[in-house]
Design a protein that fits this description.
26 strands, Calcium-transporting ATPase, cytoplasmic transduction domain A, 6 domains, 741 residues, Alpha-Beta Plaits, 7-stranded mixed beta sheet, 6-stranded antiparallel beta sheet
Length: 741
């Protein structure tokens, strides 16, 4: 086999984990396909195949043959089509659920309270028929498609149980004499058919709602790259061209406020660039000649010309997009207990119902047909997956509501179901452990307080002209302490050191120690010790001087959140290993980790390094949660088993993440994990209640007690048992609301 490639394709038409498994197996069976993974959570198929053996059109035909579809056109229109399909599917589900609910209520009311009113059966028939034919049509269509390929899932059992109960009730409504002549009352089970359809539709609606925003993160990542660029041709003329036409070696000009279109190296000019999309660090980076620049980063105030070195799919941004797509597509969906159990449960129930019919026909004597039909229908009714369908979504729904009350937004059931297993957490530093914005933390004045007012005005007037991001921190800190701006002369920016300016024949400087020493500013031993002390605490020090006289030293830092240390301690008490990864330097990383009580940290890491570190932890058998707030964290978030974004971070990080902490308070992480544990416990209890009725009721429904006690379970009692199991499940889920996190 020749060269192989990996590609992600959207899959449409899937409704459950069994569908994903069928689609995955169908792809794997194709000649030339090495591997395939279909994820029901985001409706994506990640396929590794040999393009010289199998074409994407062949994969599409293979998927279409089992009732699904594969979108293979790689353009924005196709992406928009997929989103439109998801919107239509959700809208249809919503309409069907509301419609089934509206008709089920009067059906149940009549069945339970008003069975003796005239034409009760005919009224229920009229109300039930639209529930099955219109609102529940999808279950019957899916069951039919699966049957053609000799497969079954939850849709099969829903279709069989509701269909047979409906047909049985229809027969009893049209021809009640059949039972009267045999001394039996013709029961009808319209309410069972209608209510089952409603509850299963509700479960599907909740699931679809959780998956509604899966593609927006990738679209936003793609949107980071500008559509057009300014090219400088061989004659030095500037012209605007589409970014897709840029070739390696092209000279491009970037203006203030513009995004960098491709990766390259600066030829002339300088600027400060916000690289948070790549590094996650809040401080913009100064760029001069020969500095590297990256696609998707944001140029601030300066202009520069650079040469394109990596374009298209070779850029770091493109690699991040590709890795996020693959991490989302290759990650196995959460174990969906109901669908997995249904894979065994459905054929067994069908076999038991048929076997019951056959045995009763053989040994039922005079009333063989009557008993056989009753036994078969009763088995299917009592085994109805209503409670099974409700077990997970009701617990998840209440759990998500409980999370929202506590400032924890949970996007999907996967994270809530998996979070209880977390034993390793990876934290980003900037914006997660720290506030994410540089602030002045301290000022030491080397002059009397009475002389400070005018000097503050001079300092702010200088900083207003500075392009350095630290100048913003100084301005924000001192803006309320100055009144008016002072005109200054000969403002000069000195690369890598700071700025100087002239006012009333005196030279003022604002910059680092290198600039102060070059200008022969007098720094006492006490001042030098203070500077060193602040630097050891991972703070940046700015000096303000006049000629050779020091006026003040200013400490600027990205503050650690007040709750970070306690939050990390809480996680460690839960037995979780906590790691901090940051693109910042080692000195800063060490200082921050010491302050919050972390032993495990890594500095100067790139986005791919974070994802690789998570992969390494996963290879050691750990269930890893990633907590971050920047676009640079998106690959790591997608790779992690559970991804959590800080609410004040980037939209892309929040889109990729399965959970979002609205307040950006790390204390809520331990609450989210406890919520997951409560929810999982509730789901397991729900499944127990759902199955206990089946385990006890199915053999009784089949007639095992008849030879001993002559007892035959009435289908009405079977329907009541089914309904009671659903009530048990819903009531148990509602108990989650009372739990204290």
């Amino acid at each position: 086999m020749g060269t192989t490639i990996k590609k992600s394709f959207p899959v449409t038409g899937m409704s459950c984990a069994s569908c994903a498994l069928n689609a995955e197996n169908q792809l794997k069976e194709q000649k030339g396909v090495l591997n395939a993974s279909v994820n029901i959570a985001d409706s994506m198929a990640l396929v590794e195949f040999a393009p010289d053996i199998v074409k994407t059109s062949d994969l599409k035909i293979a998927i279409q043959s089992i009732g699904f579809d594969l979108l293979i056109d790689e353009n924005e229109e196709e992406s928009d089509t997929l989103e439109e399909l998801h919107r239509k599917q959700y809208k249809t589900l919503l309409i069907n659920t509301i419609g089934a609910s509206a008709l089920s209520i009067p059906i149940v009311t009549i069945a339970m309270l008003f069975m003796d009113i005239p034409y009760a059966n005919w009224i229920m028939l009229a109300l039930t028929t639209p529930v099955l034919v219109l609102f529940g049509r999808r279950f019957f269509v899916n069951a039919y498609k699966l049957a053609l390929h000799r497969k079954a899932n939850m849709d099969t059992l829903v279709a069989l149980s509701t269909g047979i109960a409906y047909l049985f009730s229809l027969f009893n409504t049209i021809y009640p004499e059949f039972w009267h002549n045999r001394g039996l009352h013709p029961h009808v089970y319209y309410e069972a058919s209608a209510v089952v359809i409603f509850f299963i539709l509700l479960g599907k609606l909740l699931e679809e709602r959780a998956k509604s925003h899966t593609s927006s993160a990738i679209k936003k990542l793609i949107g980071l790259q500008p559509k057009t660029v300014f090219l400088i041709d061989g004659n030095g003329i500037e012209q605007e061209i589409p970014v897709s036409m840029v070739k390696t070696g092209d000279k491009l000009i970037v203006k203030p406020g513009s995004k960098i279109p491709v990766d390259g190296e600066i030829l002339s000019g300088s600027s400060f660039i916000d690289e948070s999309t790549i590094t996650g660090e809040s401080l913009p980076v100064e760029k001069t000649v020969e500095s590297k620049v990256y696609a998707g980063t944001l140029n601030q105030k300066g202009s520069f010309v650079f040469v394109a070195q990596k374009v298209g799919s070779e850029t770091i941004l493109a690699q991040i997009i590709k890795m996020v797509q693959q991490a989302q597509g290759s990650k196995a969906p959460v174990q969906r207990l109901v669908d997995k159990i249904a894979g065994i449960f459905v054929p067994i129930i069908m076999s038991i119902s048929i076997l019951s019919f056959v045995i009763w026909m053989a040994f039922g004597g005079e009333n063989a047909l009557t008993q056989a039909l009753l036994a078969m229908v009763t088995v299917l009714v009592i085994a109805c997956p209503c409670a099974l369908g409700l077990a997970t979504p009701t617990a998840i729904m209440v759990g998500m509501g409980k999370g929202a009350e506590n400032g924890i937004l949970i996007k999907d059931a996967e994270s809530l179901e998996l979070a209880h297993k977390i034993n390793a957490i990876v934290l980003d530093k900037t914006g997660t452990i720290t506030e994410g914005t540089p602030e002045v933390t301290d000022i030491f004045w080397n002059i009397p307080e009475t002389a400070q007012s005018d000097l503050i005005r001079i300092l702010l007037s200088i900083e207003l002209q500075s392009e350095h991001p630290l100048a913003e921190a100084v301005l924000n800190h001192l803006k309320d302490k100055a009144n008016g701006r002072i005109p200054i002369d000969r403002f000069e920016s000195i690369t890598g050191k700071g700025v100087t300016a002239l006012y009333q024949d005196k030279t003022y400087l604002v910059g680092n120690t290198k600039l102060a020493e070059a200008s022969q500013v007098n720094l006492s031993e006490k001042i030098r010790d203070q500077i060193q002390s602040w630097q050891n605490e991972a703070q940046t020090v700015v000096l303000f001087a006049r000629d050779h006289e020091l006026i003040a030293i200013i400490a600027i830092a990205d503050k650690i959140k007040s709750t970070s240390a306690q939050a990390i301690q809480n996680l460690q008490h839960l037995g979780i290993d906590v790691y901090m990864l940051t693109g910042d330097n080692s000195q800063t990383a060490k200082a921050v980790s010491q302050k919050v009580g972390l032993k495990n940290y890594k500095a100067e890491v790139m986005p791919s390094d974070k994802a690789d570190f998570i992969t390494q932890l996963q290879s050691e058998g750990k269930i890893v949660a990633m907590i971050g707030d920047g676009i640079n964290d998106s690959h790591a978030l997608a790779q992690a088993d559970v991804s959590i974004a800080m609410g004040k971070g980037s939209d892309i990080a929040m889109d990729v993440a399965q959970m979002t902490i609205i307040s950006s308070d790390l204390l809520l992480i331990s609450k989210a994990i406890r919520l997951s544990r409560f929810t999982i416990r509730t789901i397991r209890q729900n499944l127990f209640w759902a199955f206990i009725y089946n385990l006890i009721g199915i053999p009784i429904a089949a007639g095992v007690l008849y030879p001993i006690w002559g007892f035959m379970l009435n289908p009405m009692i079977a329907g009541a048992a089914m309904a009671f199991s659903s009530v048990s499940v819903v009531s148990n889920s509602l108990r989650l609301k009372t739990k204290k996190l």
